[in-house]
Amino acid sequence: MASSKFDEVRDKVREFPLNSGVYLMKGPGDKIIYIGKAKNLRNRVRSYFTDNKDHSPKTRLLVQNILEVEYILTKTEVEAFLLEASLIKKHRPKYNIRLRDDKAYPYIRFTWGDDYPRLYLARKVKKDGSLYFGPYTSGFAVHGTIRFLNRTFKIRDCGDAMFRSRTRPCMTYQIGRCTAPCVKYISKDDYKAEVEGAKLFLKGQNKKVLKALTEKMMTAADEEKFEVAARLRDSIQAVKAILQKQTVINDTSEKDQDAIGFFGDERGCLIETVHVRAGRVIGTRPHYLPHFDPNDPKEDPREWLVDFMNQYFEDNFIPDEVLLPLDIGEELCKLMGEVLKERSGNKVVVRYASDERGRNLVDMANQNAEAHFLKYVSKSEEKQRGLEEIKERFSLPEIPRRIECYDISTFQGSETVASQVVFEEGVPAKEHYRRYKIRTVEGINDFASMYEVLSRRFKHTEYDDPNLIVIDGGKGQLSQAMKILEEIGRKDIPVVGLAKARTESDFQKQTVESTEERFFLPGRQNPVVFKNNAEALYILAGIRDEAHRFAITYHRKLRENTSLESELDYVVGLGEKRKKVLLTRFNSIDEIKMAAPDEIAALKGFNRVLAERILLQLNDTEEEEAEVEA
Predict the structure, then answer these.
(1) What is the pLDDT of residues 268-293, one digit of tens each?
(2) Topology (CATH level 3) of domain 402-629
(3) What does pTM read for this prediction?
(4) Does the CA dihedral 130-131-134-136 come out positive or negative?
(5) Which of 305, 356, 533, 588 lies at 20 to 30 Å from 192 by C-alpha?
(6) Is the peptide bond before 17 cis (omega within 30 degrees of 0)?
(7) CB neighbour class for 597 (10 Å; exposed up to 12, middle 13-18, buried from 19)
(8) Computed from CA positions of residues 583, 587, 590, 595, in that sequence, does the dihedral angle turn out positive or negative?
């Protein structure tokens, strides 16, 4: 920061109020680069502008870029915490700790407030009257659990639209796996009584579940309903088998807990959360923070740990108790507990894990953090080598830490849309994804559509500029993109065209796509080609594929009456023959979504990779609620 500007901002800060609130630090282009909260705004913000050699390198770099500081007053310190988290989520400041998960972890949503509740996979916890359980480690685990509970407790598995429109029971009723609430074969109260066992199971009250199932089995046997008794016997065995696979921490506890651990060095830090529900460990969740060293003596562990909790519990399930690996002090623990209580509506205890049982959980979190850290660092270093190769092969002025790719998609000659996908440090940055519905172009005109998209994109000065733009296409599309960037005054941004080489198959006598990706650069005649196993190729082809996926799923959002066939059309790599096989094997889109990967992979013409791709793309609707239309 220039000396005169530094003095100007410092003098302004001296007049800040002594109240609690949130402060927003801005850099060039009026961009918010850091957001913090404080019990005393003046004292907290002034500490940045003191000649303090104890500041970490990150803090010194932050101060050098501050051109303006604004504040928002709050009535209480708790309100400051809540406001800070929501503002960080909205603005994603450069110098804040940023949680960068690859995906939203899944929960089981039980619509207990409905007349006839149903189980869903959900990516977000909402205050909608439903019960949420999780988070779980994978969508496949959730689907497996839902499928088990549906069969064991005869929970309906049809969608709400189908449920309301049915006039007679479906096949699920015929085979004894549903009680046909859709046609009122069972009352609301009786249905809830039947499915309550699933709720007890998810809450960890397993003894009650087994006792209820055993009583029903004995009653059915006494009444000589031997088929019913046999099904209940199988259900009891299935429940016991599931329980044997779970790690038991405390078989008598009904308390939900999250234990936090961490591991890191100068390369970064990985924070791990271990999730305990009703005394059983249901999963762990890693959070990798690049370029952050938790062992740096100039970093206050109390500050970064509280910042992590404040952001993490903004969107995720809040347990009854949070166990910490560091002693942040009784006052901060109490304050954080009040913040989480304000969000959840329930009492939340935040404490240092000083007891043996708590230490065991935190030790588990620390061990997982160390193992995952080594994996993430290896992956991060590999991505870095890929970005350096892209810089070298494309003769870029700097490493392309932010890459943007655009895809224009037109469905059946109408509804032209575009997607903007962003990779940061070689991995998807989904918070920066944008959708565009083309407004000024009629019919199919890719040049005009791309002109509109890029014009709208670069009007957003609050977005960081890309170090590289990838265009899906060859020399023609590259030439168009260069012309557009020049017309909108952004020809300083490097751009490359990506196209697959097409070859003639002697066996089939038809044109097919080969695996070779060719990259066209401005002013160069011959394309650049990477080795098939190059990380640079994985990054560039990955962002192109992701842009294509994101664009075509936007069509799904716009088309309200999408049929099963057209929804399958959106799955990349699923042709007509394979689609027919799926439609023959499964009766509905929900049935496909609930299928196990191995079940799909076993079909003729399918494999495990394609099966997982189908399930991921059909089940991405919840996750995409977080992706923003520009």
Answers:
(1) 899 999 998 877 787 888 988 877 88
(2) Nucleotidyltransferase; domain 5 (3.30.420)
(3) 0.66
(4) negative
(5) 588
(6) no
(7) buried
(8) negative
